[in-house]
Amino acid sequence: MIGVWHAWRGRTPRGEGPWAWLSAGSVALSLLALAALLLLLTVRGLGHFWPADVALVTLADGQQLAGVPVREVALPGDGRERLYRTGNAELEDGVWAWVPVAAITEVEYPRELVRVERRRGDEMVGWLVGMTREDGRWIEGARAWTALQERLHVLQGLRETRDRLRETVILPHVSEREPGDGDTPELTRAYARLQELQAAMEGGRLILRAAGGERLVVPLEALQSARRPNAMSAIDKLADWSDAVWRFLTEGPRAANTRGGVWPAIFGTVLMVILMSVMVMPFGVLAAVYLNEVAHQGRVTRLVRIAVRNLAGVPSIVYGVFGLGVFVYGIGGTLDTWFFEERLPSPTFGTGGLLWASLTLALLTLPVVIVATEEGLARIPDQQREGALALGATRLEMLSRVVLPMATPAMLTGLILAVARAAGEVAPLMLVGVAKLAPQVPVDGHFPFLHLDRKFMHLGYHVYDVALHSGDLQAALPLAYATALLLVLVILVLNLTAIFLRHYLRVRHGMPSPR
């Protein structure tokens, strides 16, 4: 944008001609494309959680349907059709309905229309007829809506207690138990408490009347939430939207990743990137130091540099195949034979997991770190090295106390590039450890606390799975947009952290900023 402005004002350097306009226009188009992408992800992703109003549509033949208007398209000729999400998968009409605009005689937004979100399956839309409590008592009218909200609040608390019991007690004990071992007293008590919670959640039914007059009955324990969006104020909708976004960020997935949140995927993505960074930085820096400071600058060194740069262009799936063959089956299978023979044929390290995924991505990003670090080392003036040696420093002291601190911003540049590439990779992870559903994160309170052998979820793979493997693509697409936006934000936060650290070190060591 700045280049376009200067070019328009006639401030382009003499002799550059149209090239200044071409380069400035390319930068402007790139920024506009990036802004358009972020705007699309934001509108489609965050708009998914907004409690949209429910329309009651009356057709020319007298039939009625209730649903949320999604979009409107033009038909060949002068006609137009409008898509409504009607829910109520139990009915023959299905979840989606295309309605000719010309056939619509009236559109209303009754305040009493209810949208019910189920934990599994599609939502339900209709009028609340009544409900039976867990004790079998029938409630209808205005009291039914109040009782429904109270029961849903209780169910949410029971589910949180149940999930916490599974994650903190049952799953860690089951994963650490040796084959043939019986249940410990703590595990027996946990199972008994789990049965009590499950019994407390059972009982009660909700009855809705659909727009066509059909009655829909669903157990209360199968419900996630119920709202009347037409009766909600803007502030109420904003609060509901904020709560939905928060639950999306903090809850685990459900219903085959088509419902719920993405917290395990966020945690898995960040943890994998951190482990990858810890693994790749020492080897990348040491390799760059050897090539630039130690090795004889001859033909062999030039060939090694060419090979390193070519490795940066190898397709990522090739690294995934290498990781599967060498890390998983080779090293992991050997570790199972040495240390976990009693668990075979069930593998411990001989299958995909967090460790092998981090190592594979470390190998994938190693050329990037080497090239960036070596370029930073090459920019350090030789006078700095000669001055340190002249003052009596050994070659090791010169490297560790003068050269490497000055090259730290370049190392962090390599780290930034590595994080940007590794965080969005999906193809190699499909072979070495990512899982469609792994609600238990690889970190817990039981020794060794960080479980490198566990499979993990990843935001990139979650987008792939939701967008391509969902039973209802039309309903899952907004969730894919939201997850993609979240992945971009996670990468942005990781990169900004490294950028701020690089700036701090550059100022501390008096290094000029690159132009």
UniProtKB/TrEMBL annotation:
SUPFAM superfamilies: MetI-like. InterPro entries: MetI-like, MetI-like_sf, Phosphate_PstA. Pfam families: BPD_transp_1. The keyword Cell membrane applies. It is a multi-pass membrane protein. The chain crosses the membrane at residues 19-41, 262-291, 311-332, 352-372, 402-423, 479-501. It is found in: Cell inner membrane; Cell membrane. Its main location: membrane. PANTHER family: PHOSPHATE TRANSPORT SYSTEM PERMEASE PROTEIN PSTA (PTHR43470:SF6), PHOSPHATE TRANSPORT SYSTEM PERMEASE PROTEIN PSTA-RELATED (PTHR43470). Belongs to the binding-protein-dependent transport system permease family. CysTW subfamily. This is Phosphate transport system permease protein PstA.
